[in-house]
Amino acid sequence: MKAGKIRMDKALKSVLDWWEAAGVDVPDVTLTAPKRKAKPRAAPAQNPKNSAPVSRPAAAKPVIDAAPIAAKAKTLSDLKSAMDSFDAGVLSGAARQCVFARGNPEADLMVIGEAPGRDEDIAGKPFVGRAGQLLDKMLASIGLTEEEFYITNIVTWRPPKDRNPSPEEIEMCRPFLNRHIELMKPKVLLILGGVSLSALTGTTGIMKNRGQWQTINIGTGDIPALPIYHPAFLLRQPALKKDAWRDLLALRERLQAP
Ligand code: URA
User: Fold this and answer.
1) Does ligand 1 come within 6 angstroms of the Cβ of 131?
2) CATH number for position 88
3) 7 lies in a domain?
4) What is the pLDDT of residues 182-209, one digit of tens each?
């Protein structure tokens, strides 16, 4: 390809990835790679001793089941220690550290984002970059300081290249997330963006579901949960802040209810 030429399939994919990361429902577009002439297939490698094909190394290391580890945690601090030393395969292999939480564990409100990014991976705390600063401002606009909320993510290791966590990674982390919610015992959950919405409720579509109260039950009783736009999305779409403001008012009302 000549310098300066734009590959439209790559450009479209990166736009779709960005929108999806921001929590928008993107159409399921199959991108076709440009056709190339088929290369003749190489014969499988042979073991010179017995002429049997040489076995390949295992593709992926099996990941440990997090459920019994999470179940053993009796406190948030136990859970953090368990997660800090957990082998989350590709995720913990590529990230600097497990990004556990920030805020007040005694708060009524638990905020759940998607996964840490670069700033969070460095700081070891969720939502400390630009999206986090906006999130703090949004919560401050309804009178909530860091003393009144607690934030974590669905996946607590920064995914390589800041891609979305895969469904398998979300499932791997789910026992930790559920135990985190059980131990924190929030009165209300705030769900940030489409990836978190679908991981927590199985419902897809942040555009149509934002502002619609959901109920989460992980075995400890019903917890009301409000999905809102992800702050990273609002940074790109400031015109939608008015919807977010309406949702924040509904959140404040619910938090103030007896
Ligand atoms: N986006 C998220 O979903 N989580 C973070 O911690 C930071 C950005």
Assistant:
1) yes
2) 3.40.470.10
3) no
4) 999 999 999 999 999 999 999 999 999 9
